[in-house]
Design a protein that fits this description.
about 70 residues, sequence-specific DNA binding, 5 helices, elongated, HTH_AraC, Transcriptional regulator containing an amidase domain and an AraC-type DNA-binding HTH domain, Arc Repressor Mutant, subunit A, transcription regulation
Length: about 70
């Protein structure tokens, strides 16, 4: 809402323009980016657990995160 207000357009117009430009909804785009970041961190293991990394990127429900991760990366 703040972004739409700052741009001087409605939320609906902002979402519609984003979808037209990216061919994906803003929420799906954000989910893809977050999933990619988790995947990159998991490929370069450090001291953080899978749970810590998932939580860091906003995946609070680990069961759903696990399902989504498998859907993306097998």
């Amino acid at each position: 809402e703040q972004l739409a207000e700052h741009a001087g357009v409605s939320v609906r117009t902002l979402f519609s323009g984003f979808r037209e430009f990216r061919n994906i909804s803003p929420m799906a785009f954000l989910r893809n980016v977050r999933m990619e970041r988790v995947h990159l961190e998991l490929r370069n293991p450090g001291t953080d657990s899978v749970t810590d990394i998932a939580m860091k990127w906003g995946f609070a429900h680990l069961g759903r995160f696990s399902q989504e991760y498998r859907k993306y990366y097998g």
